[in-house]
Amino acid sequence: MADFTDEYFTNPDGLKQHYRDYNNAPDGAPAILCMAGLTRNAKDFAYIADHLADRCRLICVEQRGRGLSDWDPDPTRYAPVTYVSDMMTLLGHLGLDKIITIGTSLGGLMTIMMNAMHPGVINAAVINDIGPEIDPAGITRIKSYVGVGTPPTTWDEAVAAVKAANPNVYPNFTHDDWVDFTHLLFVDEGGKPVVQYDPALRKNFDSQDDQSAPDLWPIFGLMHSVPTVVLRGELSDILAAETLERMAREHPDLNAVTVPEVGHVPLMKEAMVHEAIDALIDRFL
To answer: Is the pLDDT score of 137 beyond 90?
Structure first.
């Protein structure tokens, strides 16, 4: 596993946020900001960090309410506009004004928003299994498990719950794969699995009547000058094949990669994903 340090910054609301800093690449190497999905954390980027850390500095941030970051006492601030503000604070903390982004799901939406709100800060982007339109079927699936149910008391229960919440997402997973995946989502405290996000995230999630959200195509249009790779799981219930096709038609510098036999989301350890990301990163080395 690539070496990293655990670092923190303070966001505009005074909360401490955690990030893993893979900072062992040569001086002048590209900086990559990695932003995880709705309930996910920095561990999701361990695979791609292993692949890139000798060439790039990776900053794998945990949004407020996730991982080792503080939970927000005001759940209404669990919102993408707030997260983008937090990311700009992080970039100021790091002294970075130009970055490459790797955004998974929510992190991909944040990428699109960051580019619109702060044009010029993103040199290139990898968007993992999300787009300007979100398939309602995936939203229904996610709502079925975020912040609900009885917390597991054993790791066997946790593995079973994760498998039940992700039907058809990773059909080729072995039992050991599911165990490894479950350890990305939970932390061990006294031998028991503890979820790594604030269940209050669900409050804002439930408050939105239409989880397919506003029309983001005009905002995505502002990405057209940003070299972009979009990853899609072949079985994804979040990013439809038709949406990816339209993204590729409308963006003049977009590489669309569909990962076979995977749902939402590709884990970014697949060879074809590495090839696409390498080709993008090589443009900035």
So the answer is: no
